[in-house]
User: What shape does this take?
Amino acid sequence: MTMAAIQDRSHADSGTGIVIDGVSHSYGSRHGSGVLALDNINLDIRENEFHALLGPSGCGKSTLLYLIGGFIPIQQGTIATRKGKVTAPGPERSIVFQNFALFPWKTVLQNIVYGLKKQGIGAAEAESRAREFINLVQLKGFENAYPSQLSGGMQQRAAIARTLAVDPEILLMDEPFGALDAQTRRVMQEELRAIWQRSRKTVVFVTHDVHEAVFLADRISIMSARPGRIQHVIDVNLPQDRGEEILERPEFLELSERIWRLVREQAISASRGEH
Amino acid sequence: MYSPILRYVPLLLMLVFWQLLTVSGLVPPEMLPGPLTVAGALWDLIVSGELVTNAVRSLSRAAAGLVAAIVVGIAAGLFMATFRPFRLLVNPIVQIFYPMPKSALIPLVMIWFGLGDSSKIFLIFLGCLLPVIVSTYNGARGVNHFFRWSAASLGATKWEVLREVVIPAAMPDILAGCRTALAFSFILMVSSEFVIAKDGVGFLISSLGDSGTYPAMFAVIFTVAAAGFAADRLYAAFARNQLRWREP
Assistant: This one.
């Protein structure tokens, strides 16, 4: 990528980040005749926006994320980024998973260095960059700890650091705080929002937690129960700087309530479904 | 928590019971010589150099067969896990051969490879190969796809994912398979030397048995058991060290 392109990316915020065009996906069959998980998804995710995919479990939101990541082959439709059509995983679309995010056989430092070395960065440079990101996610002192020695929150911090360190254009997050306790989750959400404010990556964040989506995102796509469709795309008109105090603001509560009502219908129909 | 010394008290009790049994006269000494007699015979075997020479012969055969089995087994297991045609070809063969007692092949291997070292090494190789293949294959197949996806999304190629993610993630299974193979190598080392050898500990046991020198025979049997035990403990310590990332 040229310098001009990088400049362009850091200034524009209405450009196109990810174009999802007519994507359908089925499980259980090689030829698309199994269980329909995603049905004709059309969605434009803007460049530099924090976009939440919100829906009940089993709605296919993670499947959509994995398709964007290039981890599973696209059966129908196309997904395109600035780099072109998605056909395989790539470091410009890096991901943080809910579980098994880190390599358990590597220390925190080694995990982050691994990603940097894959970008062709030399060992010494990779290590000093890795230490910067360890500081960023406040894990100083845990460089040489193995993931099994860290709490769930610390593991996710390290995973986020590893992903941010490779400087992806697009950050994919698959319910990254889903396994954390409520207090840790709250802290992590605030920190992620603050980190995003500084780095302004395009983020696609999968969650089933309405408050999490409203607190973090600029726009929220609400997905229907299986087969997953985009039911609504909602703008979150909240201040860019979001601290804990925003959770008490009337506009936050109103929007959460409105979105909750929309999600609720889907959750009810999902719970009555066959799966 | 057992202290390491306390853990081996049952072995000591067994020795005491054995000694009492022979002293009591319930068992004729020519059927079961007492531990002190056996210890004396062991000393004689060590001093004469007979035990060491034969043990070195045996252990070098076991090591050659085992190392070859580990190298080939890991490669084959990984190849099976990653390349479907190879899996379809090899899997049924592995499944048939795994439960088959390899010592049943001794006469056949003797015809193929003669009476020299190669027949024993081949038999040990064959016996150790299958547990390594099966555990490597299962380990590599069971690697969580999130690990592979994470590496791919950080920019790893398919080959790098195999080398840097699949192998370390499967390492607990691979190491467990190698431990089984280590035990098999001792068993096959002795049983192959029973039948086809002019030296080695298996040959020593069978020739001492044939000549009725039971104290010396027992001494060799216990030496093999002790060597097998020591090898296993050493290996377990090595494996624990390799897998220390699993300990919280």
